[in-house]
Write a structure and sequence with these properties.
The protein is of the alpha+beta class. It has five helices and seven strands, in the order E-H-H-H-E-E-E-H-E-H-E-E. Strands 1-2-3-4-5-7-6 form a seven-stranded mixed β-sheet. It starts with a strand and ends in an 11-residue tail after the last strand.
Length: 171
């Protein structure tokens, strides 16, 4: 029997979250971001200092099944903010396509008081762009950037939220 819950992340979840980040980055980015660059980005993004900042300033959710974390989402912005930024939405590659990402997005958005927009940045070449498009986000901008000297293209995506039913993300 499956016991699935979405809950706020706590510090003891960090090791499982880091493992999901590594597996997801390897699965998603290995064809266009070198492994040594991925390792530097992950080390920086999941450092103790960075995670302490996230715990203070972000809504951090995990999707758990039988005490195993299968995915997570980091949302930034005060819960009273009209504009939500989805920092990260990572589902372990073995569990993608099962609706976990959609559930995490819906749950996170519902935590905000009166959100008007949801936006995110994804890297060009990420297979998840089609998922975000299915969820109603549209590409609004493309920016050239870099990770530790490696060039990447950042795709900015945004969606206007319908607040007539704040627990529903469908439009």
């Amino acid at each position: 029997m499956w016991t699935m819950i979405i809950r706020e992340m706590i510090s003891k979840d960090l090791e499982q979250v880091q493992k999901i980040a590594l597996a997801t980055w390897r699965n998603t980015y290995s064809s266009f971001i070198p492994l040594q660059i991925q390792d530097k980005v992950l080390k920086d993004a999941y450092s103790e200092n960075e995670m302490n900042n996230r715990f203070k300033n972000s809504l951090n959710l995990v999707f758990e099944n039988n005490n195993e974390i299968l995915g997570y989402a980091f949302f930034s912005g005060d819960l009273l903010s009209n504009d939500i930024f989805l920092e990260s939405l990572y589902i372990h590659p073995q569990h993608q396509g099962k609706g976990i990402g959609k559930q995490l997005m819906q749950f996170g958005i519902a935590k905000y008081n009166n959100p008007k927009t949801l936006s995110l940045v994804v890297y060009k070449g990420n297979k998840s762009i089609s998922f975000y498009e299915k969820m109603g986000l549209k590409v609004t901008n493309r920016n050239n950037g870099e990770f530790f000297g490696h060039p990447v293209v950042f795709i900015v995506m945004k969606k206007e939220l319908d607040n007539s039913n704040s627990t529903s993300y469908q439009k």
